[in-house]
Amino acid sequence: LHGVQRLWHRNGTLIRSVNYSNGVLHGDVEEHDGSGRPVLKARYELGSLDGPFKRWRREDTLVRGSYVEGWYTQGKRTGTWTSYYGNGGKASEGSFRNGRLIGGWTRWDREGNKRDP
Question: What predicted TM-score, i.e. pTM, was given to this entire model?
Answer without folding.
Answer: 0.88
